[in-house]
Specification:
By secondary structure, the chain is mainly α. The protein contains 6 helices and no strands.
Length: about 150
């Protein structure tokens, strides 16, 4: 059992690395430039010097490899960087939304418990009857339907 747990914990490292690579590449493969979108959204024409300054601040003027190294190094230090859209630190952005997200997660968990325990009990008591089949179908539909 100990070896199984250690093996699973060690598999977290390549999984997180793969997820980080995927997120990094998906963010960089989006058509357009974040500086173009941010500055053009303010209206009017933007000169090249302003765009270059924005790119230098965001760090997107570096090579893709250096951007990736900076991304991973920040990830290791739990420094998630600056939001490309708002310009605020990512930790601040997460903090703004964490309270509401936690409330939603708690309410969803409580709702699932309140619904699933009685349905599971009824299904176990009325095993292999139409009630059991209905509860099974209802449960499968609840899992299959997107939130």
């Amino acid at each position: 059992m100990y070896q199984y747990i250690v093996k699973r914990l060690l598999l977290v490292i390549p999984t997180l690395f793969g997820a980080a690579v995927l997120v990094f590449l998906l963010l960089r493969l989006i058509p357009g430039d974040i500086c173009d979108m941010r500055l053009a959204g303010e209206g009017g024409l933007v000169d090249e010097e302003t765009l270059n300054t924005c790119r230098a601040i965001m760090g997107i003027d570096k090579s893709l490899w250096l951007q990736f190294v900076d991304f991973i190094w920040g990830f290791i230090r739990f420094d998630l960087g600056i939001s490309m859209w708002t310009g605020q630190p990512i930790s601040y952005e997460i903090g703004l939304r964490f309270h509401l997200s936690l409330q939603v997660a708690i309410m969803a968990t409580l709702s699932a418990i309140v619904i699933s325990i009685p349905l599971g009990t009824i299904s176990a008591i009325k095993q292999n009857t139409w009630i059991d089949y209905f509860v099974r179908a209802f449960s499968i539909a609840g899992i299959a339907i997107p939130s």
